[in-house]
Amino acid sequence: MKIRDSVKDWIAVLFLGLCLLFFQLEAFHSSFLYARSVEQAKDLANLAENIEEWQDLIRFHVVANSDSPADQALKNLVRDEILKEVSHQLASSQSLDESRQILLELRPTMEEITRRVLGEKGSDYEVRTTYGEESFPTKSYGSLVLPAGQYEAVQVVIGEGKGANWWCVLFPPLCFVDIKHSTAVPVDGKPPVPYSGDIQHGQNSESTQDFENYKNTKNDKSIKHTEEPQKPKVRFWFWEKFIAKKG
């Protein structure tokens, strides 16, 4: 009996020790992930601070055929699939020239992905991609305010390209920082469409559901908007906002 009780005591002690070890490992893992995210944020903040001109940015736009709910949902599906494919290559880019080279190689892939998504949803819209200097009005992207002017940009245009577009900044690779809550907020035009997918796991169920919900919509309402003037000045407070969020 004493031996049996002794064994039970040792098992209890061993179990308790394993539990403590598990919690210590979890705490270490969480600390490691936090430190890594802080380091990544520092790197991106340094990249942004080194940008002397807003022309040093590369923008990415996905333009919908129209503002109908069905077309907007279809645009979101295209966006999700493209970002899932290109994120791992662009997120690690450390220079403007490196990003340019990557995008030149990826442009055909972006167009191919768009055609595939449209085909899967029974859409026969035409697709075109452009990469070069484009004229854009004043817009804001989180804490980054971009004045009107010529910008280097990759654009994926669906159909007539008359709908609201989703956009982000490919270099510095801000598209891939907290992208799950990323929203391009235009200060001069149509309402933003937040990115709600998970590029790491390729989850785009919300966009798929949106498309299924809206694809038969017949009565579309035009989107009215008013311009909110902003000073033509580039501002970037990502690092401060990141620290505030983590705090």
What does this protein look like?
With 247 residues, the protein is an alpha+beta fold. The protein has 2 domains: 1-50; 53-219, no CATH class. Helices cover 46% and strands 17% of the residues. It is built from 5 helices and 7 strands, in the order H-E-H-H-E-E-E-E-E-E-H-H. It has helices at residues 2-49, 69-90, 96-120, 205-214, 238-246; strands at residues 58-63, 127-136, 139-141, 144-146, 149-158, 165-171, 185-186. The strands form 2 sheets. The chain has a 4-stranded mixed β-sheet with strand order 2-5-1-6. A 3-stranded antiparallel β-sheet has the order 4-3-7, with no helix packed on it. Strand 3 and strand 4 (144-146) form a beta hairpin.
Q: Please state the overall shape, judged from the principal axes of the Cα atoms.
A: elongated
Helix % is: 40-55%
What are the secondary-structure elements, in order, as H or E? HEHHEEEEEEHH
Which stretches are low in confidence, meaning pLDDT under 50 for 5 or more residues running? 31-38, 178-241
Number of helical regions: 5
Based on helices, strands and strand pairing, what is the structural class?
A: alpha+beta
Span between N and C termini? 54 Å
Work out the count of structural domains: 2
Radius of gyration: 23 Å
Q: Numbering strands along the chain, what is their spatial order in the largest sheet? A: 2-5-1-6
Average pLDDT figure: 68
Beta content: 15-25%
Characterize the biggest β-sheet: 4 strands, mixed
Strand segment count: 7
